[in-house]
Specification:
- About 40% of the residues lie in helices and about 25% in strands.
- With about 130 residues, it is an alpha+beta fold.
- The strands form two sheets. It has a three-stranded antiparallel sheet with strand order 1-2-3, with no helix packed on it.
- A hairpin with a 2-residue loop joins strand 1 and strand 2.
- Helix 1 crosses helix 2.
Amino acid sequence: MTLEVQREGEHRFVGRNERGAEVRIGRTGAEGAFSPAELLQIATAGCSAVTAENLITRRIGEDSKFRVGVTADRREGASELDGVHVTFDVDVSSLDAEQREALAAAVDRAIDRLCTVSRTLKKAIPVTESFPTA
């Protein structure tokens, strides 16, 4: 899969994939754009949502709606995140206490086993860059 980020103007970039999807990227506070750190958080929440979707809809209903919030810890002035926290907002009122606990445990296991983004962040993989010199 080919992904790219192209500069569109001062502090304005567009990320694209081969399927035609685009996302605007900019510095923190840029109007209509995600910062790179926000994208990392969104990717974490999105991966968790995609991973948990079938588990949730099977137990609560195919038409169930849910939200996945995400926050991050960052020390003042730091150029890195110290932690990312994903929170599911799901109406589980149709389940009894035992079913709620079982669903929460199943979601945790699935994310730990299958969510590429969370697994990668926990692993802290190497990142390399190349830049033309000739």
